[in-house]
Amino acid sequence: MRLNDLLGWRVIDGAGTTIGGVADVRLVQDGPVLASMQSALRVDGLIVVEHHTTRLFGYERHVGPALLRWLVHRRLGEVWYLPWNEVDDLTDGTVTTGTHRADLKRHEEMARY
Fold first, then answer.
1. Cβ partners under 8 Å of residue 96, min gap 6
2. Three-state SS letters, the chain
3. What domain of life does the native source organism fall in (predicted)?
4. Domain that holds residue 100
5. Cα angle vertex 85, ends 79, 87, to 5°?
6. Higher per-residue confidence, 73 vs 20
7. Count of alpha carbons within 13 angstroms of residue 68, beta-carbon side
8. pLDDT digits (tens, 9 = 90+) for 13-31
9. Could you say which of 5, 21, 50, 76 has the lowest number of CB atoms within 10 Å?
């Protein structure tokens, strides 16, 4: 599977409630050193949006004019971060997690790398 294939997948919790859709994949470069002398990338988590799965340009966070951020949040709804270690299953366009929506961390509260 390619990471791009995850975009748009529906995310549901253990109770079967739809949380939203995958809008982005967060990678961290902290793996073993490769022949190119750079550390390998690993999947750190998924960015999940409540309403419309669309490309994110950073406006869902702390950047850009306030009006533009408001419009983006109005369209997307809530934006959450789902850590990769909390993903239980990937099947048929659906990501399943045991974590409930109320327990997910809001994406804008995440530390910026």
1. 11, 12, 13, 14, 87, 88, 89, 90
2. CCHHHHCCCEEECCCCCEEEEEEEEEEEEEEEECCCCCEEEEEEEEEEECCCCCCCCCCCCCCCCHHHHHHHHHHHCCEEEEEHHHEEEEECCEEEECCCHHHCEEHHHCCCC
3. Bacteria
4. 3-108
5. 65
6. 20
7. 10
8. 988 899 999 988 989 998 8
9. 5
pLDDT at position 112 is 59
The first and second tokens of residue 25, run together, are 């994949």
Q: Do 48 and 73 meet the contact criterion of CB atoms below 8 Å apart?
A: no
Residue at 8 is within a domain: yes
Token pair for residue 100? 């409930």
Indicate the pLDDT class of residue 81, thresholds 50, 70 and 90. Answer: very high
What's the pLDDT score for residue 52?
A: 66
pLDDT at position 12 is: 96
CATH of residue 40's domain is 2.30.30.240
Among 89, 3, 79, 81, residue whose Cα is nearest residue 41: 3
End-to-end CA distance of the chain: give it in Å, rounded. 26
